[in-house]
DNA polymerase kappa
Amino acid sequence: MQQSRSQSAAPPSDGSMDCKQWFGTVFTNDKAGMGAVDKDRIKNIVYEMSKDSAHFRNDLRKQSQTEQRVRKMKERASALSPAEIAGHTKAMDMKIAALKASADLTRTWLHIDMDAFFASVEELDDPSLKDKPMAVGGIGMISTANYVARKYGVRSAMPGFIGRRLCPQLVFVKPCFSKYVKVAAATRAILADYDPEFEAGSLDEAYLDVTDYCQMHSTSGEAVAEVIRQRVREEVALTCSCGIGPNRLLAKVASDIRKPDGQFAIPGNTTAITRFIDLLPIRKVPGIGKVSEQVLKAFGIETCAGLIANRGLLSALFSPVSTNFFMAVGLGIGRTQHGEQVEEGAVGRKGMSCERTFQAMGEPAELEAKCAELSEKLAEDLASEGLKGKTITLKLKETNFEVRTRNITLTRHISSREDVLHEALKLLRAELPITIRLMGIRMSSFLETNTGPGQRTLSAFLKTDSADSAAKPAPPHQHGWNQTFLDRETRQELDEQMQQHRLKQKSEQQSIKASAGMGAVSDGHAADATLAAPAACRTCEETDVDPGPQNSHADQLGPGKLNINAAGCSQRPVLQMKNALEPCQAPEAGSSQPLELTLRDWQPAAASQLARSQDAPSDGQQQRLQQGTRTDLSFLGGHNSRGSPEQQQDSASGGKEIGHSFPGDLTSCRDVLDTADDAGEPDLVHAWDEEPAGIGEMPEEAHQSGSQGAAAKATPPGARTWACQVCTFGDNRPQILRCSVCDAVRGTTLDYFMGHNAEVSSASASQQDAQDSAAKAGSRSKRPGLDATGSKQKSILRFFAGFEPPAKAAESSALAGSGNNKALAGEQRASSSVQTHQQARSGGMWERAEGGSWLCKQCSEDVLEKDKSTHEDFHIALDMSRKQPGQAVTKHMQRQGSASMTQTQRKRKVTPSGSRAGAEGMNKRSVKSVAALLRPTTM
DNA sequence: TACATACAC
DNA sequence: TATGGTGTATGTA
Ligand SMILES: Nc1ccn([C@H]2C[C@H](O)[C@@H](COP(=O)(O)OP(=O)(O)OP(=O)(O)O)O2)c(=O)n1
Ligand SMILES: [Mg+2]
Ligand SMILES: [Mg+2]
Ligand SMILES: [Mg+2]
């Protein structure tokens, strides 16, 4: 059948092009802020600087492969008979009909994406960068650039030296993930007010289903977007862009249209959707990247209308998965549900890896040493999550940039450094001799621990148990369980238990609340009386509560709920970095310092309160802090870098929706769409590139609160910080914390961590712990709006991967990733609960036992040195569950009054953004990245 | 299961 | 001189 719609006229080409011409597409494709750039100039500069490099030759190699692929497809296409095409078209018509029938246009989704995120955060620290072209990264790699720099063609993933050539005045700033994580946390705290179940796609973006919110408040998605952007501007001092649409795909694509600092809505009617999607360049679709774009263009498909118009051809040439994806995209249909939550004890991730780029090496001894380093690091990460896998993959990138992966699947699951190294070395030796610039090790095929079908889970046990008696469930150790409790699996169960406990308490408390009013609040305060002055909490009570969010999430996290935030309930934002960071680690090489983040404070009232607090630094102090920090880190310039975390996200699977049947028959779905109803004619503006508006200015006062003690507390060299396992485990959890007392949703993992770091003096290690653990996740795979799968990811972060040795300057990689948890581990500290935690940890809870182990004074358990931290976390969690019978929260107090926050979200399966799976209701998501960004710009 | 690719941030 | 790190999905064998 004929396509009723015509694709944009793109002369089908043979897919090949002149070398230079093709290369010109590198870094010149559409990107926000690049509308006015001189693409030819960029093309020439990039080409000239790259043409003799190994990297460029690798690009050519890949390009020729793509061309080859296109040639084959063309051959197949020309061999198709008209009948075959007709058959495929018919099939697609049916598929389209099914998609339409299952489409749900009644939801309202928002996709929020921060503008030039890393760069904007750096501008907060140093406002003088605002009007200068600036890039976050290093001479080796740029993570992102501010909009001023984008005018010169500088952009993400571009080598710094090319950026510098494009713009000689380009200022380089090393990435500092911890700052980005904090800012992201602050932003998310705001988002949670509109959809407590929002899904973070990465550190800088999130999907919100505001359907319920809109209904409840009789408002529209656009209005909500305006409010959110305004709040982000005021409370976080950054601008973001928002896309509003009936599904995730459309919201995601829309968020890029008015960027920066803008929003764009696609109404939920077929007319509007069709108009929008038809003209949308395919490359704008998440999941369609450089290669897919090139292939599709070879068939004359440049905009999404072409996906439908050429449905028969696409069906004949592409796999069903891709074809379905293309049809959904062409119809503007995407997921309309949040990702599904990960089952309790299930291993969410599919794999975990560690890789590093370094100066080329080929010496076996060196290679093996590198392998050992990676094994160690990976083993640590695996241990941090209690994972054991049986497939080890060794990744080698030759000096010509060709990548080789070799893997082996064992019959048993392993996790130790020794075992990992042993297997990795075998894989490595089989490849010798070889000279490489990168090595990586990945573990996958994880052992699913717990919760087997026939296995009775601890939570189930407790549930039953507690249900039978009025007594609160006894803490695990009181049940006579031994130290196996400290194992990760067991901890997961403990987590469940805590959740159940909390749930129960919550319901109890709610009834109490109903009859006693503030009683609960008082109780909460009382619990922590020693730490804080309740007075400050008063303001909280006025905070209005959003019922929805609350009950849906308050209990998710188990123990995690601690509170955090030192600032006091009245101060909204969580951030307050005051004590923040202590760098979790050592000096990173070059990264801009973590401490600076001055997260602002929010409202005037809060500001005044802050001013009073002893921690609140004056503006002057703050500046000094910042400067100091910078200076301190300057020495980094050289070698290692380390990274920090970023964040992650999730997604889930799609479900089916309710049907919308369209009139008529589908022979020509497109026609149906065309004539389909609808009112509201949105004026869709297809102005993909807006002029870069500058980044929003912030009110001076927004820069007040700050970190104060931060700088002061430098972590002693060699000091190692530990992440609170209790709070950490459950990766992927979105980090929102809700104050059980006042219901304010503010904190985040960061805040969280703020209070949980404890230093362990000596200890070995690498401080990378923190970073490492941070998030690693971030994957992406599926086509964003649509995907379907769901896997989880962790998040991660780490960064600074950089170069090692010889190169004096290392670069670090910062990347973006998503992930949340651990990453931050080391960073901050907050005032309140922090102390509690620190006491728990460091305080005299340990006594030397014979044999080198330790005796826990609280439970008399004999614990090994390596398990101390976990054990401490166990007590913390226990403590919390007891104190807070009422609800999720644990405390609400603190010195100047802090709010207790309860973590709100839980992990979800993550479907990468570009997954093609599940055409209609797919899910997906996550990310991360890092960057090598850091090489010193010294050159 | 093994490997390479594509994609996302 | 110089081009990142982590993760998921997909296609093919
Ligand atoms: N290849 C990439 C892409 C992105 N990032 C990091 C830096 C970005 O600031 C952040 C968010 O990515 P975005 O794609 O959202 O880009 P920006 O936020 O920088 O810019 P925009 O205003 O276009 O959203 O992720 C990265 O490290 N490496
Ligand atoms: Mg962004
Ligand atoms: Mg983004
Ligand atoms: Mg795309």
Residues 105 and 268 of chain A are 5 Å apart (CA to CA).
